[in-house]
Amino acid sequence: MNTTTDNAATDNTPAVKAAFDGGKFLSFQLSKEEYGIAILKVREIIGMVEITSLPRTPDFVRGVLNLRGRIIPVIDLRRKFDMAPAEITAETVIVVVDCGNANSNGCDSSFRVGCIVDSVSEVLAIRPEDFEAPPRCANASGDYIDGLAKLKDRVLILLD
Protein backbone atom coordinates (compact mmCIF):
# COMPACT_ATOMS: atom_id res chain seq x y z
CA MET A 1 0.00 0.00 0.00
CA ASN A 2 1.21 3.49 -0.71
CA THR A 3 2.28 5.00 2.60
CA THR A 4 2.12 8.60 1.49
CA THR A 5 -1.07 10.41 2.29
CA ASP A 6 -0.96 13.12 -0.36
CA ASN A 7 -2.86 11.23 -3.01
CA ALA A 8 -3.96 7.99 -1.35
CA ALA A 9 -7.47 8.24 -2.75
CA THR A 10 -6.22 7.97 -6.32
CA ASP A 11 -3.65 5.27 -5.57
CA ASN A 12 -4.22 2.16 -7.69
CA THR A 13 -2.66 -0.37 -5.31
CA PRO A 14 -4.81 -3.47 -4.66
CA ALA A 15 -5.51 -2.51 -1.03
CA VAL A 16 -6.80 0.95 -1.92
CA LYS A 17 -8.87 -0.46 -4.79
CA ALA A 18 -10.30 -3.15 -2.50
CA ALA A 19 -11.25 -0.53 0.05
CA PHE A 20 -13.47 1.23 -2.44
CA ASP A 21 -15.17 -1.60 -4.26
CA GLY A 22 -18.70 -0.59 -3.35
CA GLY A 23 -17.66 2.44 -1.25
CA LYS A 24 -19.84 1.38 1.70
CA PHE A 25 -18.56 0.17 5.04
CA LEU A 26 -20.14 -1.40 8.10
CA SER A 27 -18.94 0.46 11.17
CA PHE A 28 -18.56 -1.24 14.53
CA GLN A 29 -17.16 -0.53 17.99
CA LEU A 30 -14.30 -2.12 19.87
CA SER A 31 -13.75 -0.38 23.19
CA LYS A 32 -13.87 3.34 22.39
CA GLU A 33 -12.58 2.95 18.83
CA GLU A 34 -14.67 2.78 15.68
CA TYR A 35 -13.72 0.42 12.88
CA GLY A 36 -15.13 -0.31 9.46
CA ILE A 37 -15.13 -3.17 6.98
CA ALA A 38 -16.24 -3.11 3.36
CA ILE A 39 -19.92 -4.03 3.28
CA LEU A 40 -19.30 -6.35 0.33
CA LYS A 41 -17.19 -8.56 2.63
CA VAL A 42 -19.89 -8.79 5.31
CA ARG A 43 -22.05 -11.91 4.95
CA GLU A 44 -24.21 -11.46 8.02
CA ILE A 45 -24.42 -10.24 11.59
CA ILE A 46 -25.58 -12.68 14.26
CA GLY A 47 -26.11 -12.44 17.99
CA MET A 48 -23.78 -14.28 20.30
CA VAL A 49 -24.21 -18.03 20.11
CA GLU A 50 -22.45 -20.98 21.62
CA ILE A 51 -18.87 -21.22 20.40
CA THR A 52 -16.97 -24.51 20.58
CA SER A 53 -13.42 -23.86 21.77
CA LEU A 54 -10.48 -25.46 20.01
CA PRO A 55 -7.38 -26.62 21.89
CA ARG A 56 -3.98 -25.10 21.25
CA THR A 57 -5.13 -22.08 19.25
CA PRO A 58 -4.04 -18.48 19.77
CA ASP A 59 -5.93 -16.70 22.55
CA PHE A 60 -7.80 -14.48 20.06
CA VAL A 61 -9.35 -17.57 18.40
CA ARG A 62 -12.45 -18.20 20.47
CA GLY A 63 -13.31 -21.39 18.61
CA VAL A 64 -15.78 -22.39 15.92
CA LEU A 65 -19.52 -22.25 15.39
CA ASN A 66 -21.90 -24.19 13.22
CA LEU A 67 -23.66 -21.68 10.97
CA ARG A 68 -26.34 -23.52 9.03
CA GLY A 69 -24.12 -26.57 8.53
CA ARG A 70 -20.94 -24.63 7.81
CA ILE A 71 -18.13 -24.55 10.39
CA ILE A 72 -16.91 -20.96 10.87
CA PRO A 73 -13.87 -20.00 12.97
CA VAL A 74 -14.58 -17.18 15.41
CA ILE A 75 -12.05 -14.61 16.55
CA ASP A 76 -12.33 -12.00 19.25
CA LEU A 77 -11.15 -8.75 17.69
CA ARG A 78 -10.48 -7.22 21.12
CA ARG A 79 -7.97 -9.98 21.84
CA LYS A 80 -6.54 -9.83 18.31
CA PHE A 81 -5.86 -6.10 18.77
CA ASP A 82 -4.45 -6.55 22.31
CA MET A 83 -7.35 -4.72 23.97
CA ALA A 84 -8.69 -5.45 27.42
CA PRO A 85 -11.41 -8.10 27.44
CA ALA A 86 -15.01 -6.97 27.87
CA GLU A 87 -18.17 -8.60 29.10
CA ILE A 88 -20.58 -9.99 26.55
CA THR A 89 -23.61 -7.68 26.41
CA ALA A 90 -26.88 -7.61 24.48
CA GLU A 91 -25.08 -5.47 21.86
CA THR A 92 -22.16 -7.89 21.38
CA VAL A 93 -22.44 -9.57 17.99
CA ILE A 94 -20.54 -11.76 15.58
CA VAL A 95 -19.91 -10.20 12.17
CA VAL A 96 -19.39 -12.98 9.61
CA VAL A 97 -17.03 -11.80 6.87
CA ASP A 98 -15.47 -13.22 3.73
CA CYS A 99 -11.68 -13.34 3.88
CA GLY A 100 -9.16 -14.08 1.16
CA ASN A 101 -9.85 -14.17 -2.57
CA ALA A 102 -8.96 -15.97 -5.77
CA ASN A 103 -5.22 -16.25 -6.31
CA SER A 104 -3.31 -15.83 -9.58
CA ASN A 105 -3.94 -19.49 -10.47
CA GLY A 106 -7.69 -18.89 -10.29
CA CYS A 107 -8.01 -20.99 -7.13
CA ASP A 108 -10.47 -19.66 -4.62
CA SER A 109 -8.75 -19.29 -1.25
CA SER A 110 -11.63 -17.45 0.38
CA PHE A 111 -13.12 -18.50 3.68
CA ARG A 112 -15.50 -17.05 6.24
CA VAL A 113 -14.61 -15.87 9.71
CA GLY A 114 -16.80 -14.68 12.55
CA CYS A 115 -15.50 -11.58 14.33
CA ILE A 116 -16.77 -10.76 17.81
CA VAL A 117 -17.32 -7.00 18.16
CA ASP A 118 -18.80 -4.87 20.93
CA SER A 119 -21.57 -3.47 18.74
CA VAL A 120 -22.37 -2.52 15.17
CA SER A 121 -23.15 1.11 14.39
CA GLU A 122 -24.20 1.85 10.81
CA VAL A 123 -23.43 1.47 7.13
CA LEU A 124 -21.43 4.44 5.86
CA ALA A 125 -20.74 5.58 2.31
CA ILE A 126 -17.14 6.77 2.19
CA ARG A 127 -15.90 8.87 -0.69
CA PRO A 128 -12.47 8.06 -2.17
CA GLU A 129 -11.17 11.52 -1.18
CA ASP A 130 -11.93 10.72 2.48
CA PHE A 131 -9.71 7.63 2.43
CA GLU A 132 -6.14 7.87 3.67
CA ALA A 133 -3.36 5.31 3.99
CA PRO A 134 -2.35 4.29 7.53
CA PRO A 135 0.32 6.48 9.16
CA ARG A 136 3.93 5.42 8.74
CA CYS A 137 4.51 4.68 12.43
CA ALA A 138 5.65 1.26 13.62
CA ASN A 139 3.21 -1.53 12.78
CA ALA A 140 0.37 0.90 12.10
CA SER A 141 -0.66 -0.85 8.94
CA GLY A 142 -0.25 -4.41 10.22
CA ASP A 143 -1.67 -7.06 7.96
CA TYR A 144 -5.25 -6.00 8.47
CA ILE A 145 -5.55 -2.19 8.36
CA ASP A 146 -6.58 -1.04 4.89
CA GLY A 147 -6.56 2.65 5.74
CA LEU A 148 -8.36 5.42 7.55
CA ALA A 149 -11.54 7.25 6.66
CA LYS A 150 -11.76 10.92 7.57
CA LEU A 151 -15.34 11.52 8.61
CA LYS A 152 -16.86 14.81 9.69
CA ASP A 153 -16.13 14.47 13.40
CA ARG A 154 -14.12 11.25 13.72
CA VAL A 155 -11.70 8.80 12.12
CA LEU A 156 -12.79 5.30 11.11
CA ILE A 157 -10.13 2.58 11.02
CA LEU A 158 -10.81 0.47 7.91
CA LEU A 159 -9.95 -3.20 8.17
CA ASP A 160 -9.07 -5.54 5.34
Task: Describe the model.
The chain is mainly beta and 160 residues long. Helix content is 6%, strand content 42%. The chain contains two helices and eleven strands, in the order αβββββαββββββ. The protein has helices at 14-19, 77-80, and strands at 24-30, 33-38, 42-47, 61-67, 70-76, 93-99, 111-117, 119-125, 131-132, 145-150, 155-159. The strands form two sheets. Strands 8-1-2-11-10-9 form a six-stranded mixed β-sheet. Strand 4 (61-67) and strand 5 (70-76) form a beta hairpin. The protein is globular. Residues 1-19 have low confidence and may be disordered.
List the helices and strands and how they pair.
Layout: H1 14-19, E1 24-30, E2 33-38, E3 42-47, E4 61-67, E5 70-76, H2 77-80, E6 93-99, E7 111-117, E8 119-125, E9 131-132, E10 145-150, E11 155-159
Parallel strand pairs: 2-11, 5-7
Antiparallel strand pairs: 1-2, 1-8, 3-6, 4-5, 6-7, 9-10, 10-11
Strands ordered across the widest β-sheet: 8-1-2-11-10-9
How many angstroms separate the termini? Answer: 12 Å
Helix content: under 10%
Q: How many distinct helices?
A: 2
Succession of helices and strands: HEEEEEHEEEEEE
Instruction: Please identify the structural class as seen in this structure.
Output: mainly beta
CA-atom Rg in angstroms? 16 Å
Shape by Cα distribution: globular
Low-confidence stretches: 1-19
Strand content: 35-45%
How many DSSP E strands? 11
Mean pLDDT: 81
